[in-house]
Amino acid sequence: MNLIASSLALLLLLGSSGKALAAGWLLRAAVQEGSAPKYQEGPPGKGGPRGLCPDFLRAIESVDPEIRFEIDPTPTPLRRIEKSLEEGRIDVLCALLETARRHQIAHRLGTPLYSVRERLVALRSEAQAPKSFDDLASLGGLVAVQAGASYGDKLRRHGVAVDESETGVALRNIVRRRVRYYYGNELTCVYYIQAAHLGGELALVPGVMGETPSHFWAGRHLDPALVRRLDAALLKLKRNGSLERIYNRYAEMH
After folding, report:
1. pLDDT grade, residue 41 (50/70/90)?
2. Residue 229 has pLDDT above 70, yes or no
3. What is the pLDDT of residues 116-156, one digit of tens each?
4. 176 phi, psi to nearest 5 deg
5. Is it true that 3-113+215-251 and 115-211 share their CATH fold?
6. CATH architecture for segment(s) 115-211
7. What's the rounded mean pLDDT across residues 188-206?
8. Boundaries of every domain in the chain
9. pLDDT tier at 48 (50, 70, 90 boundaries)?
10. What pLDDT, on the 0 to 100 scale, is given for residue 42?
11. What whole-number distance in Å separates Cα of residue 125 and Cα of residue 141?
């Protein structure tokens, strides 16, 4: 393909594959509110957001140099991020569980990023340690989840009363006895308990409620060839151990 034809091909990608660059693609992502350590605020002027997902994105860039990512650093509610993907204002979602809504607006890539350990948080004085969703429903009381997280629908299907709010607010609401438990990703639970200095009052309830794969999602407006490139990059990172190393680095911090 000559230079003129190559340039025209890249221009055609503008409407369907994020932003076309002179030698590849620039894909847009957004920081999910209340999701640390998946996304963490970086020090001012020190290179933008940090965390699991920025590290995964940099790893994809390392194995496919024609793909680049830019991350909107503004913490954004998950439902708004999903709407932005649907409208083509961002291009990818990082580390989210399967839902019918996400399948409507995005392609789920074939290689999971990691497995989410789903846990409950409660007051240290809490006497009840539910072992199942039926146990949780029978105890009564509100269970908080991160706003927009798929956990809310899962709990409601089992008859659990759910309150949706930002993670830090939800944990403080346990201390204030406005909700009884918080249900979420083990890494996120531990991160926010430590960040809010609530370890003297809150703890993980013994036992894992579930383990679920967390996926990378590519918007349906992206060119299928680019989606295949992303899929191939993730598979390469899985096979060379990079995905596991990145996850373990954050798991070992907490």
Report:
1. confident
2. yes
3. 999 999 999 998 999 999 999 999 889 999 999 999 999 99
4. -80, -5
5. yes
6. 3-Layer(aba) Sandwich (3.40)
7. 96
8. 3-113+215-251, 115-211
9. confident
10. 66
11. 16
Phi, psi of 124 (to 5 degrees): -60, -25
SS3 64: coil
Query: What's the pTM value of the predicted model, to 2 decimals?
Result: 0.88
For 114, 206, 227, 240, the CA distances from 203, given in Å and listed in that order, are: 23, 9, 40, 35
What letter does residue 14 receive in the DSSP assignment?
G
CA-to-CA separations, 91 to 17, 121, 207, in angstroms, rounded: 8, 33, 36
Q: How far is CA 58 from CA 68, 93, 126, 251, in A?
A: 8, 14, 41, 19
Q: Which of 234, 175, 227, 163 is nearest to 203 (CA)?
A: 175
The architecture of the domain spanning 3-113+215-251 is: 3-Layer(aba) Sandwich (3.40)
Helix-strand-coil split of the chain, %, nearest 5: 40, 25, 35
